[in-house]
Amino acid sequence: MKKNLLIISLLAVALAACSKKEEPVVVAPAPVVETPAPAAAPAAPAADAAAAASAAASAASAAADAASAAASAASAAASAAASH
């Protein structure tokens, strides 16, 4: 029983450590080829890149929240196991 408690506790600590937020990665802009296109055309790839970066940040935040919830659940399970 104590081995299970130790394993659960270590798992909770590992998940909590993995949920730490990292520095956002800066996406390098695509090279711009000069063409006689209107000025609004280069803004579209930048908007797409910004949307992709925002989606990635949201996914990372959701993953961190899930890891935190898993760590909390593991801690609660460890507490419940210790009280029995």
How would you concisely characterize the structure shown here?
The chain is mainly alpha-helical. It has helices at residues 2-18, 43-83.
Percentage of residues in DSSP E strands? under 5%
Kindly, what is the distance between the CA atoms of the first and last residues, rounded to a whole number of angstroms? 10 Å
Number of strands: 0
- Number of DSSP helical runs: 2
Secondary structure category: mainly alpha
Radius of gyration: 22 Å
- Which outline best applies? rod-shaped
Instruction: Report helical residue fraction.
Output: 55-70%
- Low-pLDDT parts are none
H-E order? HH
What is the makeup of the main sheet? none
Summarize model confidence as the mean pLDDT. Answer: 72
Detailed description of the structure:
The chain has 84 residues and is an all-alpha fold. Helices cover 69% and strands 0% of the residues. The protein has two helices and no strands. The longest helix is centred in the last third of the chain and has 41 residues, at 43-83. It starts with a helix and ends with a helix.
What are the salient characteristics of this protein?
84 residues
Give the topology, please.
Layout: H1 2-18, H2 43-83
Helix pairs in contact: 1-2
